TrEMBL record:
Region described as Disordered: spans on this chain: 194-213
Name of the protein in its database record: MBL fold metallo-hydrolase
SMART domains in the cross-refs: Lactamase_B (SM00849)
MF GO annotations: hydrolase activity; metal ion binding
Metallo-beta-lactamase domain location: 13-195
Presence of keyword Plastid: no
Gene3D superfamilies: Ribonuclease Z/Hydroxyacylglutathione hydrolase-like
Length: 213
């Protein structure tokens, strides 16, 4: 069974997820830890629970989801995996921070590019890779059928959807992919988003004002 721990980091209140199974192998999803206190919070949890980080993974590469990439690469000595369609987005992080007036951005570079389908594996667990662009050009979602949850990044929120006014975003593409990819998941599937509380597919199909199922 996959365990999930949520950390809310940086000025954008981004959700960083740590997932692991009974083997204690763990994956950091979208490390948004920005300052030293946030970095230490993540590291302390990993150490106190005797977890072994084996991968760092980005659902997409907007700056609030990648602040901690380089720190985690250096601290845990593991590879960074990003979607193959997010290379340019990751490379634009420094310029994006300059536009927002955010100092101290540390650039990171992918070790591996993920395809738009396949599986994310760790320990004795695997999650299906879903390609759900619209918020960003290469956005991926990671879905566990056995544990009924999806790590959704900035695709679908509780009562809302990801913004589409950033470079590479497309509103209709996002709406179509929510309807044709996310809403095909079982109603009981919990969606852990990049911001805010978790929701379920069934709840969003019934009440999301942007896309009804």
């Amino acid at each position: 069974m996959i365990q999930i721990q949520t950390f809310t980091f940086n000025p954008f209140q981004e959700n960083t997820y740590l997932i692991w199974d009974e083997t204690k192998e763990a994956v950091i999803i979208d490390p948004g830890c920005y300052d030293e206190s946030e970095q230490q919070q993540l590291k302390s949890f990993i150490e106190s629970n005797e977890l072994k980080v084996v991968k760092i993974v980005n659902t997409h590469c907007h700056l609030d989801h990648v602040f901690g990439n380089k720190y985690c690469q250096d601290t845990f000595g593991v590879k960074l995996y990003i979607p193959k369609g997010e290379v340019e987005t990751l490379a634009s992080g420094k310029d994006s921070c300059a536009r927002y007036g955010i100092p101290g951005f540390v650039e990171s570079f992918a070790d591996e590019l993920m395809e738009n389908e396949g599986t994310l594996t760790f320990g004795e667990s695997s999650m299906e890779i879903l390609y759900v662009p619209g918020h960003s050009p290469g956005h991926l979602v990671f879905y566990s059928n056995s544990d009924d949850f999806a790590l959704g990044g900035d695709v679908l929120f509780k009562g809302s959807i990801g913004r589409t006014d950033l470079p590479g975003g497309d509103h209709q593409t996002l709406l179509d992919n929510i309807a044709n990819v996310m809403y095909k998941l079982p109603n009981q599937t919990r969606v852990y988003p990049g911001h805010g509380p978790f929701t379920t597919i069934g709840d969003e199909k019934r009440s999301n004002p942007f896309v009804r199922g």
